[in-house]
Amino acid sequence: MTTERRSLPSVGVVLERPAMRALIERSPRTLVTDAVRAIIADARADGHGGATLPVDDDGWVREVEQRIAHRIAPSLRATINATGVVLHTNLGRAPLAALALEAIAEVSRGASTLEYDLARGARGSRHVHCAALLTELTGAEDALVVNNCAAALVLALQAFAAGRETLVSRGELVEIGGSFRVPEIMSTSGTTLVEVGTTNRTHVDDYRRALGPRTGAIVKVHRSNFAQEGFVAEASVRDLATVAADAGVPLIHDFGSGLMVDLSPWGLTGEPTARDAAAEGATLVLMSGDKLLGGPQAGIILGRAAAVARLRQHPLARALRVDKLTLAALEATLGLYRDTAIAVQAIPALAMLTATPARVRARADAVVATLARYGQRAHVAASEATVGGGAFPTARLPSWCVVLEGDAVTLEARLRAGAVPVIGRIADGRLLLDLRSVLEAEDATLATLVRAALG
After folding, report:
1. N or C: which end of the chain has fewer CB within 10 A?
2. Contact indicator for 130, 143 with CB cutoff of 8 Å
3. How many domains does the chain contain in total?
């Protein structure tokens, strides 16, 4: 052992320092011990003996406290999404409405009627809590909620096509977020995929020719995260519903986005609503809860009563069920859709998507004005935001951003390291904070965090 390594103190010696004993009185001893051990190990690995160790008691306390703070800090943290992507998958997709947050707090405070029927005074089912609202809002015969849309697809195929074949267009075998691919998700259900048509053109007759005695289902995937243009063709859900009915197999429509209201008055066109999808004749319609619907992560299944009942009774449904917090948030969010005017204001994702450019600019101007009062330089610039969440892939929303003056890479890192991380985007060497994807209630906090990052 080298002289330098022999000079390193033992963990026990450091813990006997008066300042460390005082620290142990206010912090768990195991955390303090682990922090001291890690500091000494780092010094040993550094190869400079004790040269990299704290030089006095105050230094030891500061270093240990920093290590403890880092260790106990949660990895899942609130952030401010200033990327300009409203439904950002990496940042949690849709923020919840105030009523949804209140509903979560209410049912998590104590006992709840999760699986208790008050009318009968006996055990009930968690599957009833959102079903009535979903059928009311979409016109579907019945509904079921599982933990996400991929789970809904796996459950549907497991119930209807396990050990059999499923027909799907080559042009709909898409990749979704995180490098997950629809055909891989479908294959986990135990079905054999039979691809029909070509990448750019698939016709109704392609499905008819592929039907056989082993066909268990037809799947129609709504291409929500990209667009095809040019020499393209696809079979409609209505046409496929007829083919499926004639063959006696279910048509499963992976609708995806969960859009509940028509957003064309705000310039967002081309995406069908859940009611439209439910009316097109598919046996089952599958969609997400945390995209355009603006609720918590969930997989929502709409469809014919007999088909939904079959899914509800399937053993896999228990493995894929949602908890009371998700059901509470989803039910509260759905309730807002009884009045569209209220929904587009009270559901944060819709409020951000439908905000006028003038309103977004006024907020950006206010943030810049706040920074200017403290002598910090920034300016407002026009930008384009996107919907995100695999919805309206070609849509560009006119927006406004705060442009911070200084080294973009350094500023971006500082904002990410803040008390509340701010996630922006770098474009053309500038750091942009797009206000369209920032909750209006966060504007003052954003200004404070930017001030701290600018120093």
Report:
1. N
2. yes
3. 3
